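User:
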Amino acid sequence: MTIRLLLVDDHAVVRSGLKMLLGGQTDMEIVGEAGSAAEALTETERVQPNLILMDIGLPDKTGIEATREIKSKFPDVNIVALTIHEDEEYFFQMLDAGASGYVPKRAAPEELITAIKAAANGEVYLYPSLAKLLVRDFLNVERTADEKVNLDGLTDREREVLTHLAEGESNDQIATVLVISPKTVERHRENIMRKLNLHSRSELVRYAIRKGIIKA
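Assistant: Predicted structure:
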């Protein structure tokens, strides 16, 4: 499947660089670009991408607001944040808005490509050093006893799968580590999301971080 990409960034030079980097990928096609939130919404409707690279600092609205609006109108479009911001506030807001990935602009090109492919496959991608920083910071915050022990009825295996999912691993990777089949991983994931009343992998990631059960 060819990944149809829409590039959203208010700096033309950044979009040009992305086109040079991603245009050479055989499984990716740049179908449009936008320099504002309004243009992003218009272009999404016009070119029908299946993935958007979204900057947070846009001139008319934030990329967070643009992500929320686009996901409400085009829920099947995956969005990956590509931004200079690496703090917890923006990270959680983008996940809440419906983003499937978060990559800092300082990331290596191969990291961005990995994030795009993961999001296109319906997975959540968190830039490794950023995810570890957020988890480490969170674990330093005092949590209530309920947050420490309440796992909402998850089995030990489901908690283990949840940990790997929240760290951005694919079903195949988890299956290899746990020596089970990808179908079994998928079944565990479905059971986890049902028990926790979650509806997306973004919500699942936030749950794991909030409960402090991600491996630091």
